[in-house]
Amino acid sequence: RIVAVIMVGGPTKGTRFRPLSFNVPKPLIPLAGQPMVHHPISACRRIPNLTQIYLIGFYEEREFALYVSAISNELRVPVRYLREDRPHGSAGGLYNFRDYIMDENPSHIFLLNCDVCCSFPLPEMLDAHKGYGGMGTLLVIKVSAESANQFGELVADPQTNELLHYTEKPETFVSDLINCGVYIFTPDIFRAIQDSFTQRKDRANLRRVSSFEALQSATKVLPADYLRLDQDILSPLAGKKVLYTYETRDFWEQIKTPGMSLKCSGLFLAQFHHTSPHLLAESKGSRSATIIGDVYIHPSAKVHPTAKIGPNVSISANARIGAGARLVSCIILDDVDIKEHAMVIHSIVGWRSSIGKWSRVQGGGDYNTKLGITILGESVAVDDEVVVIDSIILPNKTLTVRVQEEIIL
Ligand code: GDD
User: Fold this and answer.
1) Cβ neighbours of residue 155 under 8 Å, at least 6 residues apart?
2) From the first residue on, what is the mean pLDDT of each consecutive set of 10 residues in the chain (409 residues)?
3) 90 alpha carbon – ligand 1 mean position (Å)
4) Considering the entire predicted model, what is its pTM?
5) How many whole angstroms separate alpha carbon 152 and alpha carbon 99?
6) Pocket, ligand 1, Cβ cutoff 6 A
7) ipTM for the whole complex
8) How many whole angstroms from 113 Cα to the centroid of ligand 1?
């Protein structure tokens, strides 16, 4: 029996996702037409003998209630949201709910960050993990040396794949092999977390004897029940023959900004060719819109047959796309109205927004910079013939004149 746990974090973590995270928690923002967290969840379908999926986070329970019941029915595997009263860190959060998880009596526990985009090669990781015989196996990937310091950098034994050394976001370069935020563990992980808590308590007690101030500063930085998987568990256990690595040669990205969510939406759409081809739109002659490349269109959306859509476009429920409209590399959220001959390129258009005739909403397409895409928050109205370029527009604004490289509050 196998259990999967997906760490979804909480409201304080989603600030870079404003203004989209005003409406929904970051893990529920649609990428490729499905909530972000749906992608790791649906990858869990390939795990043999999966009995339960838990989402652990500190968002309000009601924010996940609808999604969790819908997806449980769809997958026929129970999916349950477990709420922390406050952040306990990635290892602390997992440990908090050990009784629920161990209730299933699992032989293995998958642990996935919700904000990564990859092919989630979970069955392959499971096989590799069984072969290594350790307590845990991390999915890892080679990235460019310049970008590696945004992640956990690690060294693995090229023969045995054992994790030899691990440093979280180091200041000086260690390795271009990084932690993908996807793990498989045996239940022994709970003992390792428990040991780490005990060691921390012992250290704090020692400090109390030597210096009251040191104790104060230590507790200020980390509450006693806050424990991070990377720094507090992986680092100290590296080189102890309990952790191993499984390297993916597929795609992998981290989704920390709206720009990256647009890029990852495209990667997930491309992945649908292998996993869910029925979700990809097709041109069906002159009675339907022209589709270019990978496109998702919700069945309730109305797209005019003369519109031209794609590549990398996803259109959510009840959106209306007018005659002659052109959409390239964008995410159109629920109930958006795009009028005749409007263009939307490298942009995310928020719920219930409207874009007037012959207007143009465009980003530069550099997904790594803040204004590299244009984002319209909820219920933004762009008048006819208005151009909006490289800008972020907060909810409920009406734009009547050209906007460029601006954040409209
Ligand atoms: N439930 C809960 N409670 N979830 C949490 C908490 C918490 O207190 N803290 C973080 N998370 C969730 C986040 O939502 C995210 O899905 C995951 O745990 C990891 O978040 P962070 O601990 O903030 O780390 P990170 O995303 O900056 O980096 C981690 O992931 C990278 C891969 O994306 C590290 O493990 C890196 O080494 C790794 O490269």
Assistant:
1) 163, 164, 165, 166, 174, 175, 177
2) 97 80 92 98 95 96 95 93 96 96 96 98 98 98 96 97 97 96 98 92 70 53 84 96 97 96 98 96 89 98 97 98 98 98 98 98 90 95 98 97 94
3) 6
4) 0.94
5) 29
6) 7-9, 13, 56-58, 84, 87-90, 93, 113-116, 151-152, 168, 178-181, 228, 230, 254
7) 0.98
8) 6
